[in-house]
Known about the structure:
Radius of gyration: 17 Å
Shape: globular
Number of strands: 8
Largest sheet: 8 strands, antiparallel, barrel
Distance between the termini: 49 Å
Structural class: alpha+beta
Number of helices: 2
Strand content: over 45%
Helix content: 10-25%
Amino acid sequence: MRLSKRATLTAGCVVTAASAVLSTAAVGHASGRPAPASHAAHRSAAVKVPPQLRVPDGNSRIASLRASGVQTYTCVNGAWTFLEPAATLWAPHDVRHRTVALHSRGPVWVSTVDGSAVNAAAVPGAGAPRTGAVPELLLKATATRGEGVFGSVSYIQRLRTRGGVQPTGGCTTGAQTGVPYTATYVFYAPSS
């Protein structure tokens, strides 16, 4: 049953992504250029960033996106172990929450607008615990693809996390469960 829920979430993400590509292209957001530092990005600047999550000098914010999805855990030898994230991302000012990116195992973020993508890895020691939530993180890009918004990403901050915490208690090996979470992902690229 848990696998069918995960399959349903994945299918829903694909359908939502396809809809987002069509609707976004229709309103002219498929330019392939990095998003300008909009007033939504400036609003996210008010988010308090712990010192260990600050991005090194020489990088500028290019996008700030809200995310909602699940942190998926699998049971290995009777204990829950993190497997992968699955989330959709949208612009903070978009009250309709139209999907502009998908986040999944890798971790990877893929733009549904221009097809660009970024893979990243957590920077060692760059985490901040959150009560009742997965930690806030600083991630460094390990690979990028495309010329669009994610094509030049150097760093990503995962901020304002809620939920997603690893289940407690015993489990049956092979079982999987998705724990709902939300976060704000802030993307940076080298300054020009």
